[in-house]
Design a protein that fits this description.
Rossmann fold; six-stranded parallel beta sheet; four-stranded antiparallel beta sheet; elongated; porphyrin biosynthesis
């Protein structure tokens, strides 16, 4: 049976998601234990953590307990924040996730790539399974259908695009803004593209893993060395952090109250202007797209620094046009129903194999007998072709019927019927 344990931005706060994602490797290892599941795929993004399990006979409660232990959480704490999907519902959920329908910013496009990378990682580590491969490959196909048929992903904005829109008035002239990008992964590439679409030109990149130079060369920007990071932060107008780290990279100790010339202050909640005051220095803007966090939350308490994190971004996520979303969800439901039907049809395969094996054995014996009797080789070939054609026609209707029984959830009836009729018959009699 397929199981999905889902903790996302709607059910859990950022702190809980962060605590789970810091232990992603231990969670993945624990859930991939062959005593628990035949396969496991973990999807960890900036606003969700999900474990997809191919685990016949595993009770959801056992899976939740395993996840809680691996993530060092109390089972009750996890149970309150974790949604459990099982059986056919897993496909519909993943198809919706991969299409951007469950994202904080509905229709965001990055999630489909994250879904692909999740199954790629599971395959590379030997943690996938045939059933999970089918599930995730189908999810990728559905996300493409939603994108091309509804235009939802062109109407919705990614989280980084939404964040940049929220600070647009604070940045002013994007061409003159000094921007530091932290991270070199897929999300960093998407962030750089979003920055350039707004006209940003003065972008540099820093990588805690040492990959800044390669990323900078391939994208035509400047790399920041570890020893110059603090100086870079002092001269930067905007920081966009999207690196994979277990602990915050930018802590309060890295910041002071020295800021550059600029405009009036802005509320830390990014919602309204404060009471007018005399002109003061322009604050440094920090956007933290990381989960776990790249920037310590207490940095927001430093005068002259404004921090925008995932929680705030999610609160401001727009609602896309209703028609596109409804059409997308209809595509997802239809695809999930077909996926479930195909899975059920495969349950009838054992009956088909037994029936075909019975007929094929009789056929081969009869073909061999006719060959031995025929004096004319050409005539023998015609007889063999006729026999094989006849066998195919005789098998067609029961094959179709067995597949129909499978789709209808009655594969067991078909297996029982074939076994009763042919299983004990003396083959070749």
């Amino acid at each position: 049976m397929l199981l999905c344990l889902s903790v996302d931005h709607r059910n859990a706060d950022l702190d809980l998601l962060e605590r789970i994602e810091r232990r992603t490797e231990s969670v993945t290892t624990a859930l991939s234990d062959t005593g628990i599941a035949r396969g496991a795929v973990v999807l960890a993004t900036c606003n969700r953590f999900e474990a997809y399990l191919d685990a016949p006979g595993l009770a959801p409660e056992e899976a939740l307990d395993g996840l809680a232990r691996a993530a060092d959480l109390a089972p009750s704490e996890l149970a309150n924040a974790c949604a459990v999907h099982r059986g056919d519902a897993v496909a519909e959920h993943l198809f919706a996730v991969s299409s951007g329908l469950e994202s904080a910013s509905v229709g965001e496009g990055e999630i489909s790539g994250q879904v692909r990378r999740a199954i790629d990682a599971a395959r590379a580590s030997g943690r996938s399974s045939t059933e999970l491969e089918r599930l995730f490959q189908h999810a990728v196909v559905v996300s493409k259908q939603v994108k091309h048929r509804t235009g939802l992903q062109t109407q919705g904005r990614s989280l980084v695009q939404l964040a940049l829109a929220m600070v647009d008035s604070r940045v002013g002239d994007w061409r003159a803004a000094r921007i530091l990008l932290i991270g070199t992964g897929a999300y960093a590439g998407a962030s750089l593209a979003a920055l350039r679409s707004r006209g940003a030109q003065l972008v540099s990149v820093y990588s805690p893993s040492g990959r800044a130079a390669g990323f900078a060369d391939s994208h035509g920007i400047r790399a920041v060395a570890p020893e110059t990071l603090d100086a870079e932060l002092r001269s930067t107008d905007l920081v966009v952090a999207c690196s994979s780290v277990n602990e915050p990279l930018l802590t309060r100790g890295r910041f002071d109250e020295t800021v550059t010339e600029g405009s009036a202050p802005f509320c830390a909640r990014f919602g309204r202007l404060e009471t007018p005051e005399p002109p003061r220095a322009r604050p440094r803007l920090l956007i933290d797209m990381g989960l776990p966090r790249n920037i310590s939350p207490d940095v927001a308490g430093v005068a002259g620094v404004e921090l925008l994190d995932l929680e705030t971004i999610a609160l401001h996520a727009p609602i896309p046009e209703l028609g596109a979303e409804l059409e997308a969800r209809d595509i997802v439901r239809t695809a999930a129903a077909e996926f479930a039907a195909v899975r059920a049809e495969r349950d009838a395969v054992p009956a088909l194999r037994e029936l075909r094996a019975f007929v094929d054995e009789i056929l081969e014996e009869e073909v061999a007998r006719r060959r031995g009797r025929a004096a004319d080789g050409e005539r023998a070939g015609e007889v063999e072709a006729a026999l094989r054609h006849l066998a195919g026609r005789l098998l067609h209707r029961p094959t179709v019927r067995l597949r129909e029984l499978g789709r209808g959830g009655r594969a067991a009836d078909g297996i029982a019927a074939v076994s009763a009729l042919f299983g004990d018959a003396p083959v070749g009699s």
